[in-house]
Amino acid sequence: MNDQINVAIIDDGVNEKLYNTGVLKYNIEITPNLMIRERKKYDKYKSSHGTTCAAIIKKYLPYSVLSSIKILNDKCEGSVEQLSLALKLCADKEINLINLSLGSTYFDDFEILKESLEYCYKKGVIIVAAISNENTYTYPASLTNIIGVKCDKKGRIKEGKYIYIENSLDGVNIISSGSHNIKNFKGINGITNNCNSFVVPFIISEVYNMMKENLHYDLNSAKKYLKQKSSNNLLEEIDSVLKENYVSSDFQKYLRLKNNLDIPIILVNNFENSSKYNFLYELVKCFRNDKYNCIGININSNRQINIFQNNVINNYNGNIDKNLFNTIYYIYNPDIFIININNDTRYMHKIRKILEVDINILINTNVNNHSSNIVFQGEKYENIISIREKRNYKIYENINVFVNENKCIPGLYDYLKEVLH
Prior knowledge:
Elements: E1 7-11, E2 27-30, E3 36-38, H1 49-60, E4 66-70, H2 80-92, E5 97-100, H3 109-122, E6 126-130, E7 147-151, E8 162-164, E9 174-176, E10 181-183, E11 189-191, H4 200-213, H5 219-229, H6 238-243, E12 265-270, H7 277-289, E13 294-299, E14 304-309, E15 312-317, H8 322-332, E16 336-342, H9 345-354, E17 359-363, E18 374-377, E19 380-383, E20 387-391, E21 394-403, H10 409-420
Parallel strand pairs: 1-4, 1-5, 2-4, 5-6, 6-7, 7-9, 12-16, 12-17, 13-16, 17-21, 18-21
Antiparallel strand pairs: 2-3, 8-9, 10-11, 13-14, 14-15, 18-19, 20-21
Protein name: Subtilase family protein
Pfam family, one: Peptidase_S8
Family: Belongs to the peptidase S8 family.
């Protein structure tokens, strides 16, 4: 059974003699020019990041068989193209579990990784990945088809325990300890640094054990298993852990966040229930297609928040206040916010009180000409009057836009770009 579960570590290589991690099933290197070759002529006793990950896996799974896909150089540098190829290679080699302690925080890299991640998902490969050390949105760890992890930096969660998170702003599912006691070939014990990377191999071992129990597994069953096995009900300090990890809206006091957001903010008041997410999604897509890191935030009347980017939606439930938007800003590092409110004037007024909204869009098919506003009809608009204000050394238009057709989005987008530049 054990050799039927194939685990691969995508990293800077596994040097198997240092911690006696055993013979590697595959020992592959992907070069910067994307050449795939067998890894040869290396120091098998040299310490490396991937080697430490292998040692942690072996600590919990001594009889497991590992593979190594080396994409990082000695400075832990590599390209997103190497990562994309490594993911596809793992799927083709019938790898079941991928240990991934690396990723990208650059939003445009998602398009490069998208195809290979979908390929792995369709092949049934489960990826456990670490979020960045800055705890900002990371590809692929923050995506919904990944098991994303990070550490509890204050060490309240002990080795071998973890918290499972249903919905978090950064997309992470697991908070655990990155500290593990491992022994090298000389019999000398050492404790790994408590960092996000070293949570991954421990969670790999948990998912591996689930696979041994259930041959008919998938990502959803793995997440369900992790939730059931979590220590959520056993940790006395769980509230403070969650607050510091973006699961509660009371997190601003734990982070050095900005009081005022210095990005354009567009507020969409959607009075057409039939449109729901479509208008927001299409407008966000226009900005992102032009290489803007645009984040769409949909707010429902039940306080459920959907965060849109690319084709990815992260869900969150919590208080809607300035702390929330500051934290989203911190995690996603956006160029622009588009906030959509579905037919709820309470939240419309609340948002305008807590944020400096630059452009107000009303979606309403029953629109007449409005003085002191811009009226969009199809591809045309009439600019009657605009009020300029100077804020944060930038000039924005404080305007109202009335939209009565979804097909007006391309024309509206062109106008918004003109106003916001």
